[in-house]
Every structure is written in C-alpha cells, then in structure tokens.
Amino acid sequence: MHEIANLVHKQLEDAQVRALVSLNLTDDKKYVLGIELRGRVAGFSREETYALMHAAHAVCPYSNATRENIEVTIVAESASEGEKA
C-alpha cells in the first residue's frame, strides 16, 4: 500500500485493513467464499481510502489469483468517525 500512497503524494502513517471471510451457499447448492475488506487510513477521507484500497486490490497478487472466484467487497471507513463509504 505504501507504493500506491506515494503515487497520490500522501504519507501512510496508520493504515488498518481487516478481512472478513464468509462461506456462502449458491442457488445451485455450491459453497463459495466471500471477502469483505474493511479499511481505514489516518489522514485520508473515506473516498481516498476507498480509492487506495481499490487500487491496491487491482494489483494485489492474491486478488489477481482469486479474481472471479471469490466475491470481494471493499468498505472504506473514516479513521475518525468509523463511517462507511
């Protein structure tokens, strides 16, 4: 994430990302994984945090390996308010 933050010319001082994993049952009775990535970055707005997380997700090797196999939801939270974007 540090490389991406440097692209937007902001220093990352405190970044937190949590991954919540769920096991879901499809209509055809198959089990699939779902991931919700929740992140907050000190000094970044929710919109900036979302953009940063989305950019990181686009280049992450784990995301690339599982793309279209696992549904991923990105949720940005305000570092000061805990609100979602």
TrEMBL record:
GO BP of this protein: response to oxidative stress
Top-rank lineage group of the source organism: Bacteria
Bilayer-spanning residue ranges: none
PANTHER family per UniProt: ORGANIC HYDROPEROXIDE RESISTANCE PROTEIN-LIKE
Name listed for the protein in its UniProt record: Organic hydroperoxide resistance protein
Origin organism lineage: Bacteria, Pseudomonadati, Myxococcota, Polyangia, Polyangiales
